[in-house]
Amino acid sequence: MEHREFSRSGMQTAELFREINSVLNQRMRQSFQEVGLTPPQMMILHYLYNHNGCMVSDISQDLHLAASTVSSILDRLERNDFITRQRKQADKRVVQVILSQRALDWKDSLRANLDGTMERMVRNATDDELEQIISGLQLMKDVLNRNIQTEEGEEPHGDNCGS
């Protein structure tokens, strides 16, 4: 009985994640359609704003995306003059991804667009509801991290550093 209940909870959680992800992607797609960017392109730009000059393998590993997926997204960003790829002088096999001046000029505007979109999505929530949402998401993140640690053989411990 307990296993069946857990399974149902797992299915409900997965379904909620799918539904939330679908709504978020739809809203983000609409929001960035004006500037010709997709949610995956925005995700990589956001990553590059914090890690300019990184390698494709860094993006792939940190965002948990296949290198081929990252490369195709970077191809589109490069065609639209948001990034350039530069080979390192010391080792020509190493390619760095560099934000273009256009991407740097658009940074504040893209951030404001994203912030405005997120704000519109939760504008009808009360302060208490927003607090519950944030608390619930933080709890879910903690539980998932604890599961990962247990699966990797580490001792589970609380991590409230926000990363």
UniProtKB/TrEMBL annotation:
SUPFAM superfamilies: Winged helix' DNA-binding domain (SSF46785). InterPro entries: ArsR-like_HTH, HTH_MarR-typ, Tscrpt_reg_MarR-type_CS, WH-like_DNA-bd_sf, WH_DNA-bd_sf. Residues 13-142 form the HTH marR-type domain. It comes from the Bacteria. Transmembrane segments: none annotated. Keywords: DNA-binding, Transcription, Transcription regulation. Pfam families: MarR (PF01047). This is MarR family winged helix-turn-helix transcriptional regulator.
